[in-house]
Backbone:
């Protein structure tokens, strides 16, 4: 089976209900385009081939996913028409086909594996889901033996049909025998489209075996058609990520306000306060505390680090053991070594910071001259006074002190005091008239 399964991912829909200039299938769920979720799950089935059916406006996807096969459906004349296009170029007439949808990132891999297994014993396998208050989905009608008798569109359903709570997800798998019937599908309907669901009727005509697989969770069988459904999908998948984090021992005070990425790795005894966003490519060690309203991405957080509240940790940042990043601090492309502290209102960019450094409130590294970016080096046990500006490229020596309010443009040697402030002068003021 594994060597004879082909997968077709339908992605030719215009996505007009998204009201967006971005193609629907590229809208992201947990930071990943929804089509990539489907492609990943398709790969997990180890098929012989994966083909993506697109419209002419999505031709650029060929470069983005160069390892996949692509076909163009123009015009879009229904799901049956889509499979007809596939079958026209399909040279392997003994292969089986699984049809997926690029706008269904929630599809459960275990349901797909069930479909794959059932296709070994049946000619048509349909994924259905339970929907008690159905108002739009096609209805799957079964006979007394439990085989699928027909799929009825909701608008064409009788009162008796509407009492049935098993609906059609659109996902279907076909044996080579049923797949070879695809060209017999006709467009005798109001829309003049070719419906893939008609393969059920054709397969029954030839006494082919038809099997229903019911989704373990109805939510995972649904596609995304608008921004509201995209938001629902995000919530579902975020809950899945939170559950994985809980299993790793992560403590979240208010889980619904914490947003994670699928590639986040956690150590032990991690505490995340409310309203935290962890973007892609973040590794978090043991005993880390991330306080409220902090945002992390592309960074490595070692053990016993405290971050925030209101901290922004940007890509390329490494926070070593026992370092501390406080409120309203932004760090980018920098290494903060052991026991160093940046507690308040600072920007640290393109910096290598030694151990046990203390950075005072309001300090910034001036790393960009409008054309190029430059490095700042702050050696171990240096003390940077409040409201200082370190103009890169510059090195602050080991054990040195930068006086508050200084603008440092030259290197400071070890164990030195650097001051750039002018002397203080006090003047008597004339009494003001009331």
Residues:
């Amino acid at each position: 089976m594994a060597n004879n399964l082909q997968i077709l991912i339908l992605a030719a829909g215009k996505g007009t209900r998204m009201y967006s200039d971005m193609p629907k299938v590229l809208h992201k769920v947990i930071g990943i385009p929804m089509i990539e979720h489907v492609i990943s799950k398709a790969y997990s089935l180890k098929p012989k081939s994966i083909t993506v059916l697109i419209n002419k406006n999505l031709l650029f996807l060929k470069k983005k996913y160069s390892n996949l096969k692509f076909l163009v459906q123009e015009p879009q004349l229904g799901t049956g028409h889509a499979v007809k296009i596939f079958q026209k170029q399909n040279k392997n007439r003994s292969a089986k086909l699984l049809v997926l949808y690029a706008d269904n990132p929630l599809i459960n891999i275990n349901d797909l594996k069930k479909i794959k297994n059932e296709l070994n014993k049946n000619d048509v396998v349909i994924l259905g889901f339970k929907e008690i208050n159905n108002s739009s989905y096609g209805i799957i009608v079964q006979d007394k033996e439990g085989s699928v008798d027909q799929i009825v569109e909701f608008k064409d359903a009788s009162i008796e049909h509407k009492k049935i709570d098993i609906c059609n997800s659109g996902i279907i798998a076909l044996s080579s025998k049923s797949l070879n019937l695809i060209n017999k599908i006709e467009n005798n309907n109001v829309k003049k489209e070719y419906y893939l669901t008609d393969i059920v009727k054709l397969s029954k005509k030839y006494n082919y075996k038809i099997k229903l697989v019911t989704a373990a969770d109805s939510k995972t069988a649904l596609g995304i058609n608008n921004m509201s459904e995209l938001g629902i999908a995000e919530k579902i998948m975020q809950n899945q990520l939170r559950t994985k984090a809980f299993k790793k021992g992560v403590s979240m005070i208010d889980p619904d306000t914490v947003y994670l990425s699928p590639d986040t790795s956690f150590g032990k005894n991690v505490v995340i306060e409310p309203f935290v966003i962890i973007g892609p490519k973040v590794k978090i060690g043991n005993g880390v505390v991330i306080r409220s309203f902090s945002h992390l991405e592309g960074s490595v957080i070692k053990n016993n680090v405290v971050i925030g509240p209101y901290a922004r940790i940007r890509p390329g940042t490494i926070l070593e053991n026992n370092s501390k990043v406080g409120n309203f601090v932004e760090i980018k492309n920098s290494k903060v070594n052991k026991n160093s502290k940046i507690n308040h209102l600072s920007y640290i960019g393109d910096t290598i910071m030694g151990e046990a450094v203390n950075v005072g409130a309001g300090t910034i590294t001036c790393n960009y001259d409008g054309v190029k970016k430059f490095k700042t080096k702050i050696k171990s046990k240096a003390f940077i006074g409040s409201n200082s500006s370190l103009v890169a490229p510059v090195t602050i020596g080991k054990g040195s002190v930068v006086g508050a309010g200084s603008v440092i443009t030259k290197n400071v040697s070890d164990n030195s005091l650097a001051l750039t402030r002018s002397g203080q002068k006090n003047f008597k003021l004339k009494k003001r008239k009331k």
